[in-house]
Amino acid sequence: MRISDADRERAAQRLHQALSEGRITVAELEERIAVVYAARYAAELMPPLADLPGNPLDVTVPAPALSTPAGPPVVLRTGMGSLRRSGNWQVPARLRVQSGMGSVVLDFCDAQIVHPVVEIEFELGAGSARVLVPDNASADIDGLVAGMGTVKSKVPSAPSRGATHFRIYGRTTMGSVIVRRRYRMFKNL
Predict the structure, then answer these.
(1) Three-state DSSP class for 176?
(2) Which parts of the sequence belong to the DUF1707 domain (predicted)?
């Protein structure tokens, strides 16, 4: 049976999630993505997905629909200084973070998040940014472009029902962006 573009995108999302979970390497992701986007039939999707959890042909189940937040973003700016949001703060639906050479820390772990989707747009120069998300949250970083910097996510990219999903996009010229959970020294406390 012929597959649609949406089927290819869902297969690609599974591969990106496998990368974020440490199941495949970046080189494997690139090889498998090429096969997925060249596929015309469902059977052609089996090889790149065969060794991952779940049914390789189960790409027609739609992902949960999450609407994009509307309205103007809250703008956070720093030049050469640092910018930090942490603790109990009210998270807006959309954030725009601009930094020339400063460092940015956005800690959402103890924040009040009332929106199912939070959009963060980065405009970074040479500074770095850390985004700390709650334990059950997911983050899509596919729209974030790095010039000479690096972009890493250590959380799942696919949204899960009932958990906050972060859409992170924009650009970083020479800085790095990392999305992860908060480190905990003693998990039982």
Answers:
(1) coil
(2) 1-53
* Residue 103: count of CB within 10 angstroms of its CB: 17
Q: Which residue has the tokens 């090429």?
A: 34
User: Does the model's pTM come out above 0.85?
Assistant: no
b/e per residue 172-181 (b: at least 16 CB within 10 A): beebbbebee
Token reading at 108: 């959402």
Do the Cβ atoms of 183 and 161 come closer than 8 Å?
no
Based on DSSP, count helices (H) and strands (E) in the chain, helices before strands.
3, 10
Give CA–CA dist 171/187, Å, rounded. 34
Model pLDDT for residues 4-38, shown as the tens digit of each residue: 888 888 889 999 999 988 899 999 999 999 999 99
Q: What 3-state DSSP class applies to 3?
A: coil
